[in-house]
User: What shape does this take?
Amino acid sequence: MSVSVETRVFRAPPWLKRHETVLAIILIIALVGLGLMNDRFLTLDNLLDQGRFITETGLIALPMTFIIITGGIDLSVGAIVGLCAIILGHSWKTFGFPLPLAIAFALFVGALAGFVNGFVITRVKVPPLIMTIATLALYRGLAEGVSQAHSVRGYPEWFYFLGQGSVFGVPAQLLLLIVLIVIAGVVLDRTTFGRTLYAIGANETAARFSALPVDRVKLIVYTLSGLASGLAAWVLVSRVTTTRMDMGTGYELDVIAAVVLGGASIFGGSGTIWGTVIGLAMIQLLKNGLALTGVKGDATIVVIGVALILSVLVASSLERRQD
Amino acid sequence: MTAAAITTAASARGAAFRRLIGQEALLAVAIIVLAIVVGFINPRFLATRNLSDILLGNAYIAIAAVGMSMVIISGNIDISVGALIGVLATVSGSLAVAGVPVIVAWLAALVIGVAVMAAQGAVIAYLRIPSIVVTLGMLSILKGGLISVTGGRWITDLPQNFHLADLSVFGAPMPVIIMVLATVLAALWMRHSPRGRAIYATGGNPEAARLCGVNPRRTVLMVFALHGFFAGLASLVYATQLRVIQSNTPQGLELTIITAAVVGGVSILGGVGTVVGSTLAAILIAEITSALVFINVSPYWTDALRGALILATVIADILRRQRRAAQGWKR
Assistant: This one.
């Protein structure tokens, strides 16, 4: 009873109760805390550097937000990154494509891989979880088969700009990510397409009866997911200067954790780009902060796993209380 | 049980039986035909040594697929099992090296396997978090935890009596005995016991199951605990075959196990399937992998083939269901 008395005395403004606001506050506290623990952490150089590492998963997290809002999931993104990296490297080195054409071809293959996911999910009605587990195996297998475990290196100098260059001191790929974040945010919030995603996630049958193009919209978001994974592969290869068949392994964990941490419901119907961006920042800062305080890389994925489960637990218990 | 529940269970059993005879017979025929075709191209494939290698080296996948089949039939999924098998292998290996009696080292794998999976099952069943989120999180916890605890060191100097898989009874090697026993007992239990039937009921329609007196939540918890037991058993067969236990399992192990369950006729929509099918499918997948080597296809194509196989089976399963549903409406 005492709880209800307190809420009558102090009623928090609605914006303060939003998941994103809470997350942003936690993020700021974490930033300050990690900054106090390590004086290398809260420097502009370090934070901009983290922008480089965030881009690959960030690019994929944008369409993943769309997909999770519709109530779907895409586990094949990491495998598509691997496949596109291999296609990029081998179509250039082995098949002798000019490099710009090889990049375009890799992006096309990424979009095609996503399209195949979306096509089977919408036409054959295979559940997204199962479809993308199957294509996770298939696309990673294709990357292994095409590459035969050979890596590709020795790209021309200009190719490294996207992954290593800077524009006015800001990492090039971070600018790309920021532009796409703004576009994705506007599309989700201000267009019919974006609102359709929420309608599908909230009640797919109702969306169909409202004459919304449910299948077409789903097909588009899965294709976008594949395309973004191809883009991530390009940025990744350019950053690390080499192409290997195991690239992107485990990306699905980082991406899904970021989206779910950012407040998107895994059951569909809710989620925002801004939340996802904060989720991404939290995961990267967690990784970086832990690394700077001496925790090894493998232990940080333990923390991400815990964060993923806890954030879903907290979100679902909050939802239940509201009901 | 009410009369309605009994009728439903009986008709479901009949339908499942008719359907699965098909899938299981198909798999058995595929195993034999593949052996004959590849043997024709390269007779060395049919050497006793090679065939027993295929069976012994992959028995643990079939054992783990028994538990995975139950999980999928109950309408869930688990992608943490590959990492769990790695953790359990390392735990029981370390215990054995530390001088603990081997029986205790073996039991530890089973007990920890059940504990980890039951914990996940409890979160999935009672807190209603989707199994994909829980097991994806657990996958990274187990994988990252294992590497950071062991530091990637290998476990060597295992005591001689640790190697359970090297034993044989009446000439039958232990991995095959465990695989056959696990499959047959699980298949009989799932077909004939009320708790076994409850798994199908829960996966087919949790709400209907609840109305028939089945507790879907407790069933899911039970399924995950059993899955943990089979994962423990699989890790034992896997670890005790090795002379050196590394801190990583074969890449994509969980995918191979899921593939075995799905190709074996377990419907990914839940409610249908048997573990006899999943065991036959595990053998078929192992046979295909080995056959590729004998017909000079690069082993790097194995994973792509596995992916194509799971995709084709899933699509065929869904199309078949849709056709049946359409026929039902016409009648």
Residues 1-7 of chain B have pLDDT under 50 and may be disordered. The interface with chain A takes residues 77, 79, 123, 127-130, 132-134, 136-141, 143-145, 147-148, 252, 255, 258-259, 262, 268-269, 298, 300-308, 310-311, 314-315, 318-319, 322 of chain B (CB under 8 Å).
